[in-house]
Amino acid sequence: MATEAKAEAEAALGYEQARDELIEVVRRLEAGGTTLEESLALWERGEELAKVCRRWLEGARARLDAALAREEHEEEAAAGED
Known about the structure:
The chain is an all-alpha fold.
């Protein structure tokens, strides 16, 4: 049940929101000064955010590929009508 809630929360994050939070996580890790436990928690959050960003980018790529394929198909159909 907790995994479902976590997945729903991640799905609700927009790309820009996840990216911005990931940038902040990386900044905090690079700055240092956190305990081992805090660093591990930040690392885990960063991994989750990176997955969210990757899913958004993969979805965008799929939409672009579909649009390009549709456009190519329409151009081929129009050329066949000539």
